[in-house]
Amino acid sequence: MNAPLYNKLIEYHKKNRISFAMPGHKNGRGLAEDLICCDVTELDETDDLHRPREAVKEAQRLLARLYGAEKSYILTCGSTAGIQAAITAALNPGETLLAASDCHMSVINTCALSGVKLRIIPRVVDKEFLIPSGAVEIEGMLDKYSDIKAFLVTSPNYYGICADVAELADTCHSRGIPLLVDEAHGAHFIADERLPESAAPIADAVCQSAHKTLNALTGAAYLHVNGNLINRSRLESALSMFQTSSPSYGIAASADTARAELETGGGWKRAVDLAAEFKRAVSGNTKIIALENDDKTRIVLNFGAYDITGFNVSKELSEKYGIDIEMADLTNIVLIVTPSNSAEDFAVLFDALWQITRGLKRKEQPLKIEQPPVCGDIIDPKAAFFGGSEAIQFTESEDRVSCRTVTAYPPGTPIILTGEKITREAIEYISYLQNIGAEITGTENGEIEVLK
Question: Which domains does the chain show, CATH number per domain?
């Protein structure tokens, strides 16, 4: 069959690789076998995801009950659709959203589409791991800028670090503005008492990617809503607007079965135990440092003591040992652990890391390269995205306004925002990342789109 993509994926599947990446079902291990027969359209017999009557309505009621939300929605276009709908429902065009600097690029893109302006809180960086910490302080920004109409935070971040969502909710609600939480990587939090508290019953809108950590097909997600600070009618209209009018019932059904599995624990106690045992083994037998984060199933391993980058570790794990990880950065690799990972997976991973690091030299000087701070001024992504643009050499774009969001993907957090003035520090940082193997989105063939 001349089907290049299909053939590539089947070839990949036959290799039986070990996955510490998303989706949570780990190459089909945790999926229900009969999901393919759920691929139907909206019929009288099957209900309608956009106009729930029976089965969909009941599935969403059970979802809200499990997470403690007032109302919940099953999504088939990922957390991106939830972010798009939440921002559109919470703010009017021309109003201002406050967001933490490690927000997902979908936040910037949604603001460009909806005409919402942005103020960004600078990130606080963990000096040892060179990653965003969970510290978020918004009172000063809210006191200084009266134009802020909502706040969006990513919690947990890609490294399994959470913000104090309850405190942020109190701060926002005392000023009458909604708190939006991108909890894409936290759909499993309710499964074990050692995991963080979910934002689902606390914040005004919370999106979760079921496919990232649960046994759900890619694209399966949840959106939870509370309180009266979100325009519910506009939210539902926005969900219909941003999601396909022909939703995948296979994806929706997998979101429903993933919820049902969570209600019985779903094997998460064992997953937390395996992750803890692995971190102890690595820390006790190598110079790799395991991050003590909030999500005990998100393993972050730091190679700062070795003369190797996280990108190189990821490449060796993939090419030599058949192990896929979720992401790498300058000094770390990130692993997603779910109940679909086995003890044998961890044994193979440990042996691979032992082989990779045992002959490495110690790093003479600690790496001190940090992502430059984002712009502190108000940003208008819509004006930049729809304004007249021209492509110029990225290395010559200093002081020009970017018409695209530039990220290292994963994790997809912005380095340069659409509507932000490009700095020399950002150019040098991105160029350095590209040279050591990072995947950069937002530039192409060495060029970037900027305002004329």
Answer: 4-24+267-357 (3.90.1150.150), 35-263 (3.40.640.10), 381-451 (3.90.105.10)
